[in-house]
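Justification of resources, computational component.

The compute hours requested in this renewal are based largely on the per-chain cost of generating structure records like the one below. Each record pairs the submitted sequence with a full structure-token output. That output is archived, and it is also reused by downstream analysis tasks.
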Amino acid sequence: MPPQLQSPEIQAFATGFPITLLHIGITVLMLLIGATIYVLMTPHREISLIREGNSAAALSLGGVLLGLAIPLATSLARSTSIIEIGLWGAATVALQLLIFRLVDLLLHGLPQRIQDGEIAAAALLVGAKLASALIIAAAVGS
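The structure output for this chain reads:
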């Protein structure tokens, strides 16, 4: 084997890369599960609306993905094991879904306005979801 392939850096990469892929895979899976739960929780069907060209629904669902990804990314960065990634990831997804639901309830009529394609309503919803995501991420990171 050539000496450069036996270097400590290459060996560390060879050992660490599969673990990194596993950590990423677990986090992406939690993101997909969280997004699926959110889609099932909403009164309107974002995917159908997006397929019909509803920009407000696309903006809203994009905000959900970012809102879930921000605290998941922080939990991934702070965790030291697969179990810890799973625990913190599940906790952040649960908190974020709860906050999303509260925001949806507090901003009466927003789901219908998004269904009607109102970009302004979707932008407000995205702002609320991203704000809560940043707060949860900061709490996990502290």
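Helices lie at 8-41, 46-51, 55-78, 82-106, 110-115, 119-141. The chain has a mean pLDDT of 89.
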